[in-house]
Request: fold
Amino acid sequence: MAGRQGAGETTFAAAGMIAVYAAIIGFTDNFVRVIAAEAGLWQFHATRTVMAIGLLLAVARPFGLRLAARNKAAVLARSGIHGLAMVIYFGALAFLPVALVAAGLFTAPIFVLLIERFAYGARIGPFRILAVAIGFVGVILVLGPEAMRGASIPALLPVLAGALYALGNVATRRWCPQESAETLLAGFFLALGVAGAIGMVVLSLAPVAVPQGTEGFLMRGPVWPTSGFWIWTFVQAAGSLLGVGLMVRAYQVADATRVSVFEYVILPASALWSWALWGESLPAVAIAGMTLIVAAGVMIALRARSVPA
Reply:
């Protein structure tokens, strides 16, 4: 009985962490469009990593944070997997519709179920399977019908990103249970920073024609940005440190197949911030999708409170 209560308590704690994570990331990601108007993705990643690591080092001693890895190989592998997932995700935005790319990434909870079941022999109850299915239907409704169009070989890239993201999330609990959240956070940012630095070097040595504004985000090499870039990249770095840190901790304290469903709430959170910040409204079908996403998370949370699903 105590075990069941413990599972429910940790699942609720993880749900709370993911809710705060979604609220923070939904806010900060809405300002990527401001950054993308003048700078490139690779410069953004590299700059954000320098800022994030600087902030981590600044608060490490006062708050007693442990940044050194206990299992360097495991942390390196997890960081590389998550970093590669994000590189593929953003790279696919260069030639695929945003909705299709996002839909591919949000297949991650399905892959979490498959990895946990077939790689680790975890028992996956029908409630979690149903919750993932309901959440994914909600994602499709939020993204719109265009998310289901354009299926092709290149369209498999976002799905690959979703699979790698899922593997990284499983690795958080399976490979790195003794690591601190700040250690994994530092590894994640360093992986993206290395990718950003490589992208900047490549585009400096072999520049390509870059469209003006946000359309040139992925192809733009290093530029001398304005103060707006520095301000909003710092907001991104600080927000990501807190938000992603909470997400990492959620995967450490609760079962990955449960936590992965809660991550669906990022889409409604981003949409609500888009409405609040930019006045962008959503159609009724998207609101229905948000309802399904919330329902999926509630199903998992309530089920975990009584019986391990």
